[in-house]
Design a protein that fits this description.
51% strand; 457 residues; mainly beta; 37 strands; five-stranded antiparallel β-sheet; single chain; four-stranded antiparallel β-sheet
Length: 457
């Protein structure tokens, strides 16, 4: 598991050199940067629009060097000192407070209705009062021993019931159960721990010809606040329905195909999700075979209402105000916009760069998309595209400083201000033996392998 997490951090950080900052942009209206503040190395950002506060998690990695040994194993060093939770005023863009939190804090969620910020630790919740930035007493996460040793993968806030629903990331070579924790949105207390079977394992070939099967996080959540329902999708082809008020598991259904990346339409009660392509032991459907298939499902009956062809699996977001789906397509460098009722393609917006994240500002009718060119370069060209969700027009692109890569963003819907974080990219240590021919390098086992490049991640 340690190897998997190190590899994941390499993919996410791409050997980050720790100069990072937070930009506050008046994105929906003007191309104006209110403030840029150095904060270390950002990993997550959340906003409380009622209070005009942004909370940015700085994971404390000032520098990280990753190497490979002669057997292809991972190794590395980093200068983790501590994590910091920065509190930022979204009206002025100024940092007003910085809180020290444990280095194992890895996930952040804001419950605006309860004026609480929860920073997920391993087995603990660091609780912050969003009104004044006071760090309250930590809360123990109640659950099985597996829960206490693994990471929170996803967390959704239900403002109507005052609940937080979190999935536990248990990626392992053992087929262990998966969990959904139901937390009180004010105290952080664990109200219920729901257990689900593991998903379908993924086989990865090894150098000796054998296969390594990993059972990664298999649960995907979709929340319908209006119907008081949480839908839990498993890569083994099951869908479970949870009552968000009582926390009871109501029913579990077998679907004709496994779904992932679900999003609920509260207006109709329907759910949109991508079909998951699986290998042996999975559920097959004659109608749904490709991973680029978008499915519209009636979660009450489990009946598939519509099957739509999508160019690729990407980030899926639904805008209830315009009844439109927004799908990022990295291969074609576009945002595909579809009608939420018929599924028909409304417009493909060409971005000219690879889209990485999409965020909706529904009150201002804006979709904000982070893009990048030269992803495997030490000088990536990153920007933020601003789309009109009603006309599908690309209004403008907001630049990120040269050589930076955008990581996370959140919008204050009250002020219309966008908070985005970015960090400097750098390559690893130069290869001292790059002059050596490959045939000679292979005959000298004491010569270390070249440092890994940034690669396509």
């Amino acid at each position: 598991m340690a190897r998997r997490r190190l590899a994941a951090s390499v993919a996410a950080l791409c050997i980050v050199a720790g100069l990072a900052a937070a930009l506050v942009l008046r994105a929906p209206i003007h191309n104006v940067v209110l403030n840029a503040a150095p904060i270390g190395n950002p990993s997550m950002v959340g906003v409380d629009s009622r209070l005009g506060r942004a909370f940015i998690l700085d994971d404390g990695v000032l520098a990280q060097q990753v190497t490979l040994d002669n057997h292809g194993g991972w190794g590395g060093t980093s200068s983790n000192v501590s994590n910091t939770l920065h509190v930022l005023d979204t009206r002025t863009g100024r940092i007003i407070k910085a809180l020290d939190v444990p280095t194992t804090v890895h996930y952040l969620v804001v419950d605006a209705a309860a004026n609480r910020v929860f920073a997920f630790d391993q087995g603990l919740l660091q609780v912050v009062d969003a009104r004044d930035g006071t760090l309250l007493n930590p809360v123990t996460v109640s659950g099985s021993p597996d829960d206490l040793n693994d990471y929170i993968n996803t967390a959704l806030v239900d403002a109507r019931t005052g609940r937080i629903f979190a999935t536990v990331d248990q990626s392992t070579s053992d087929p262990v159960d998966q969990h959904v924790l139901i937390l009180d949105g004010r105290t952080g207390k664990t109200l219920r721990n729901l257990t689900f079977p593991h998903g379908v394992g993924v086989a990865s070939p090894l150098a000796n010809g054998a296969s390594f099967i990993s059972y990664g996080p298999s649960l995907s959540l979709a929340l319908d606040e209006r119907a008081s329902r949480l839908y839990v999708f498993n890569t083994n082809g099951q869908m479970s329905v949870v009552d968000t008020k009582s926390g009871r598991l109501l029913v579990t259904r077998r679907l004709p195909v496994a779904l992932w990346g679900a999003w609920a339409d509260e207006r109709t009660g329907g759910v949109f999700a991508f079909a998951v392509q699986q290998t042996s032991g999975s559920i097959h459907s004659s109608r749904v075979r490709r991973p680029s298939t978008l499915v519209m499902l009636d979660p009450r009956s489990g009946v598939t209402q519509r099957i739509m062809s999508a160019p690729s699996v990407g980030t899926l977001t639904f805008d209830g105000t315009t009844n439109r789906l927004f799908i990022l397509d990295g291969a074609r460098r576009t945002v595909s916009i579809r009608d939420g009722t018929s599924g028909r393609l409304v417009h493909d917006v060409s971005l000219g760069a690879i889209p990485t994240r999409l965020l909706l500002d529904a009150p201002h009718h804006r979709a904000l998309v982070t893009t990048v060119n030269g992803y495997n370069s030490t000088t990536p060209d990153a920007r933020i595209a601003v789309l009109d969700t009603r006309t599908c027009a690309l209004l403008r692109t907001l630049p990120i400083p040269a050589g930076q890569l955008a990581y996370a963003m959140a919008v204050d819907t009250g002020t219309g201000h966008l908070v985005t974080t970015y960090a400097t990219m750098s390559s690893g240590t130069p290869d001292r033996y790059s002059w050596m021919p490959a045939w000679l390098h292979a005959r000298l086992p004491w010569v270390p392998p070249p440092p890994p490049s940034l690669g396509p991640n």
